[in-house]
UniProtKB/TrEMBL annotation:
MF GO annotations: catalytic activity
PANTHER family assigned to the protein according to its UniProt record, in alphabetical order: L-2,3-DIAMINOPROPANOATE--CITRATE LIGASE, STAPHYLOFERRIN B SYNTHASE
This protein's name: Aerobactin synthase IucC
Residue stretches making up the Aerobactin siderophore biosynthesis IucA/IucC-like C-terminal domain: 26-180
InterPro entries for the chain: IucA/IucC-like_C (IPR022770), LucA/IucC-like (IPR037455)
Stretches of the chain forming a coiled coil according to its record: none
A single GO BP: siderophore biosynthetic process
Length: 211
């Protein structure tokens, strides 16, 4: 619903921001803290990725202020890192047997493409109408992620493995796969095509900020 506007073309997010009593930048910062940080922590700490495209996450708010994220659809939208993580030793074998495994270079796109591209990319133009330019939107996201990473130096190797600040990200394409997938009713899950690289807005705004 954060991607929706009313009949007067006013973003729904603006109503939540007004109700919260916060300014738009503070509200966005809180949104990133309670949604993006948990998803990134789950990935880096445990090697678990959720394709958080919006249909399987719910934002819980109190008086318009983002409080926490609720997750669902683990049976189809959860994947594990292919590399050996000690944190997975306690995972039941039956779960490992039915859960897809991807290398870190590809698993990171369950967050980058699954959430940044398919959710945040559509929220950012709405926030422009509320006084937050697109560049500032990604600066706030970068600041929240950097703050989280600085508070957990013991996870530096994992942050490097799942880096969100590389100059480019892979363009992930799913629609052609859907059109050619032979068994839509089968138990296996289609995997996307990974095409040419795209510029990473998190890297771009970080470079602009440092310069």
């Amino acid at each position: 619903t954060l991607m929706e506007s009313d009949e007067n073309n006013q973003p729904l997010a603006g109503a939540y921001i007004d109700r919260s009593g916060l300014d738009a930048e503070t509200w966005l910062t809180q949104l990133f803290r309670v949604v993006v940080v948990p998803l990134y922590h789950l990935l880096c700490r445990y090697g678990v990725a959720l394709i958080a495209h919006g249909q399987n996450i719910t934002l819980a708010m109190k008086e318009g202020v983002p409080q926490r994220v609720l997750l669902k659809d683990f049976q189809g939208d959860m994947r594990l890192v292919k590399e050996a993580f000690p944190e997975m030793d306690s995972l039941p074998q039956e779960v490992r047997d039915v859960t897809s495994r991807l290398s870190a270079d590809y698993l990171i796109h369950d967050l980058q493409t699954g959430h940044f591209v398919t959710v945040l990319r559509f929220i950012s133009p709405l926030m422009v109408r509320l006084g937050v330019p697109e560049r500032r939107f990604y600066q706030l996201l970068a600041a929240v992620l950097s703050d989280y990473m600085n508070k957990h130096p013991q996870m530096a190797e994992r942050f490097a493995l799942f880096s969100l600040f590389r100059p480019q990200i892979i363009r992930v394409v799913l629609n052609p796969v859907k059109l050619t997938w032979p068994d839509l009713d089968g138990g296996s899950r289609m995997l996307p095509n990974y095409l040419e690289n795209l510029q990473n807005p998190l890297w771009l705004v970080t470079q602009e900020y440092e310069s």
